[in-house]
From TrEMBL:
Group of enzyme by EC: transferase
Segments forming domain Formyl transferase N-terminal: 1-177
Family as reported in the entry's similarity comment: Belongs to the Fmt family.
Protein name per the record: Methionyl-tRNA formyltransferase
InterPro entries: Fmt, Formyl_trans_C, Formyl_trans_C_sf, Formyl_transf_N, Formyl_transf_N_sf, Formyl_transferase-like_C_sf, GART_AS, Met-tRNA-FMT_C
Signal peptide annotation: none
Matches recorded under NCBIfam families: fmt
One Pfam family cited in the UniProt record for this chain: Formyl_trans_C
Binding site for (6S)-5,6,7,8-tetrahydrofolate: S109, L110, L111, P112
Start and end residues of each stretch annotated as Disordered: 252-281
UniProt keyword list: Protein biosynthesis, Transferase
Length: 323
């Protein structure tokens, strides 16, 4: 049986490896074009491409999958099954119709919740305590296909988008390995999604990254960890971008102010006001208390602990972030 695998980032690599390690005949890999990265904007191949080339598998990198020529290139490999994982483009109907066993997708959420391109980030930003992976048949809509199998993965307070990304990547590969034999033997029945229960997780936009200090401390804590390690939550300090990479989870109903014992003194401060700074962090007024920032990144600098920042450029109490 010929399998075509479609994926792009690190998330997809374990799924490709699982197919190969289980002996499936992966005849081609489709991934996004090489993109410029880093300060030098060097053209960089996607992780899936590197893995495919390392395994001696032909790689296709169409700019637009809806281009009929791209579809015909894939058709030439006569796939019986197409497996996708974080590929990054919607498959056209002409491609979905090619493989006899259909097209299946390894999606990083418990569908129908968090359909879209950034399910991991949005799940954490929304304060979810459980996420997971769903394997589904692909359909013309955005992550709307019938569900084949799923597995749950808990989200702990210390998790970030990066740690959950790794956990779901591994969980998805294991689920794919366990699901495919049963699916191909006809022993699984796909279940339609309940569209009324659907939520969406669009790609992260700039407005998702900016910290609104009038929100609750818990919401900001989740936003910060949901955007770590990419692209990062940010505020402004002296008019320049000031990224925040980590904070302390606030205690219920009290922000972080109870940690330093001056919630009453902060009651009249505007959201975004720096209430204090020590080697442990920066205390900033929020909509319902305060939040303790522990790892930050001033414009033009590397990410650092607040103790490092304090030695070089301390922030005076009374400074208002975000302006």
């Amino acid at each position: 049986m010929n399998v075509v695998f479609m994926g792009t980032p690190d998330f997809a690599v374990p799924s490709l490896q699982a197919l190969l390690d289980e002996g499936y005949n992966v005849v081609a890999v489709v991934t996004q074009p090489d993109r410029p990265k880093g300060r030098k904007r060097e053209l960089t191949p996607p992780p899936v491409k590197l893995e495919a080339l390392n395994r001696g598998i032909p790689v296709l990198q169409p700019l637009k999958l809806r281009d009929p020529e791209a579809v015909e290139q894939i058709r030439e490999y006569a796939p019986d099954l197409i497996v996708t994982a974080a590929y990054g483009q919607i498959l056209p109907k002409s491609l979905l119709a090619i493989p006899g066993h259909g097209c299946i997708n390894v999606h990083g959420s418990l569908l129908p919740k968090y359909r879209g391109g950034a399910p991991i980030q949005h799940a954490i930003m929304n304060g979810e305590t459980v996420t997971g992976v769903t394997i589904m048949y692909m359909a013309a809509g955005l992550d709307t296909g019938d569900m084949i199998s799923r597995v749950e993965v808990p989200i702990a307070d210390e998790d970030t988008a990066g740690t959950i990304f790794d956990k779901l990547s591994s969980a998805g590969a294991r689920l794919l390995r366990d699901t495919l034999p049963e699916l191909l033997a006809g022993r699984l029945t796909a279940v339609p999604q309940q569209d009324a229960e659907a939520t969406y997780a669009p790609n992260i936009a700039r407005e998702n990254e900016r910290i609104d200090w009038s929100r609750s401390s818990l919401e900001l804590f989740n936003q910060i960890r949901g955007l770590n390690p990419m692209p990062g939550a940010f505020t402004l300090w002296n008019g320049a971008v000031f990224k925040v990479w980590a904070s302390v989870k606030p205690k219920s109903g009290a922000g972080s102010a109870d940690r330093v014992g001056r919630a009453s003194a902060a009651d009249d401060a505007a959201p975004g006001t720096v209430l204090g700074m020590s080697d442990d962090g920066i205390e900033v007024r929020t909509g319902d208390g305060s939040l303790w920032l522990t790892h930050v990144q001033p414009a033009g600098k590397k990410a650092m602990s607040v103790s490092e920042l304090r030695r070089g450029a301390p922030i005076s109490p009374g400074t208002v972030l975000g302006v």
